[in-house]
Each structure stands twice: as structure tokens, then as C-alpha cells.
């Protein structure tokens, strides 16, 4: 397939996922997951390598950077709601980052995984570009850590909003922070569908979790790895 055709296929697959989401209202109908299944199937059927696909969709990869920065816009409009919350938010995100890293390491250790796999799982809660850089420093598998981050993001976007509702957590700020802390950009896109407030705080949690994780990784690695 040509470059233009792969771009069209990727965008069309994502839009199909959004259409399924609107039609079914199912938490399982996540646009990113739907697009991954469709594009993955077409790659196998056409015999196209991932490297060729990545080259054909470089434009989309490039636009991910500005799109991530644009997540700050909803937060700017909700700045008034953030007053007096910065300290509680930082404490909550620090606790969440520690739990995420420690649980990932201990889970791999409990299942008998290797030391390298422990280092790969440690940073699964942060967005893919950050986890790749951190995993390289820790000595894990960067590509596998990106896969973990994407899977965690998709599962979180599918499950977390419904779980928070079942737990009776209605405050949009708390819901946004909870999802953004574990599901980064994919979860933030999901919370923007819920409301601008939830999306704004999810974007805030995504960014701060990345910062906190970068600061805590050396300490956790020194104690557990």
C-alpha cells in the first residue's frame, strides 16, 4: 500500500472505533483498540512490515507531539478549579507512581520473570515516549515497555471510568486524576469524552505522573532492582 493509503487506513480505523463507541456506548469499544486490531490485521494480510508501516505513518507520529501539548488547553480553562489542590494532587500522584512501579516489579518477580523484565515493567504507567527513555536507562526492553504502556492505557480507558462509578467516585477532578495517572494519553482521550473537567485533570495527572516517575525511578531501582 502507498503512504497515503496507510494514512487513510489508520485514520479510518480510528474513526470506525469512534463510531462504534458512539453506537454501542460500550467501554470495550475503545477507538485505539479497534484501530490496532484493524491495522494489525491489514498488516498481516498485506505482508507489510511494521518498519514500512511506521515510515508511511510518520506524519501521524509527528503530530502526536503537538496533540499531547494541546492537552494543556483544557487544563488552562480549568485553572481556577486547581487552586488549593496542588499539594493533595502531588501526594496522590506520588503514591500512585510508587504503587505502580513497585507492583509491576513485584508482579514480574512473583511470576518468575527475569530481572530485565522487572526493569521493563517498572514504568508502565507513564506515556510511551517517557517509558521508552526510562526503560533504556534502567536496562529493560524499551519496545516492550511501550507495548505495556499502550496496553495499560487501553485497559484503563476501558475499565477505570466504570469502576470509579461503581465505587461511588463522582467528583470529576478525582476521576480525571485517577485515570490520567495510570492510563496517560489514551485514558485522557477517554475522559475528555466524559467532560472537559475530567479530561483536563486527567491531562494534568498524565504529565505530573511522568515527572514524578522520572524522579522516583532511581530510588525504586536502588531499593528493588
TrEMBL record:
InterPro entries, alphabetized: CidB/LrgB
Keyword Transmembrane: yes
UniProt-annotated location(s): Membrane
Primary location class: membrane
Transmembrane intervals: 29-47, 59-79, 85-111, 144-164, 200-224
Swiss-Prot/TrEMBL keywords: Hydrolase, Membrane, Transmembrane, Transmembrane helix
The protein's name: Putative murein hydrolase (TIGR00659 family)
Amino acid at each position: 500500500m502507498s503512504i497515503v493509503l496507510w494514512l487513510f487506513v489508520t485514520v479510518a480505523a480510528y474513526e470506525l472505533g469512534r463510531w462504534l463507541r458512539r453506537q454501542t456506548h460500550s467501554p470495550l469499544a475503545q477507538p485505539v483498540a479497534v484501530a490496532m486490531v484493524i491495522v494489525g490485521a491489514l498488516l498481516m494480510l498485506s505482508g507489510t512490515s511494521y518498519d514500512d508501516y511506521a515510515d508511511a505513518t510518520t506524519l501521524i507520529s509527528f503530530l502526536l507531539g503537538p496533540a499531547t501539548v494541546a492537552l494543556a488547553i483544557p487544563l488552562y480553562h480549568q485553572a481556577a478549579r486547581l487552586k488549593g489542590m496542588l499539594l493533595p494532587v502531588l501526594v496522590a500522584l506520588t503514591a500512585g507512581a510508587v504503587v505502580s512501579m513497585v507492583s509491576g516489579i513485584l508482579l514480574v518477580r512473583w511470576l518468575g520473570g527475569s530481572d530485565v523484565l522487572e526493569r521493563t515493567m517498572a514504568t508502565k504507567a507513564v506515556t510511551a515516549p517517557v517509558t521508552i527513555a526510562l526503560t533504556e536507562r534502567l536496562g529493560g526492553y524499551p519496545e516492550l515497555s511501550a507495548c505495556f504502556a499502550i496496553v495499560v492505557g487501553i485497559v484503563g480507558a476501558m475499565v477505570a471510568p466504570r469502576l470509579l462509578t461503581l465505587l461511588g467516585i463522582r467528583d470529576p477532578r478525582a476521576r480525571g486524576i485517577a485515570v490520567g495517572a495510570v492510563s496517560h494519553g489514551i485514558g485522557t482521550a477517554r475522559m475528555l469524552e466524559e467532560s472537559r473537567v475530567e479530561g483536563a485533570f486527567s491531562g494534568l495527572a498524565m504529565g505530573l505522573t511522568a515527572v514524578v516517575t522520572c524522579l522516583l525511578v532511581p530510588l525504586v531501582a536502588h531499593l528493588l532492582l
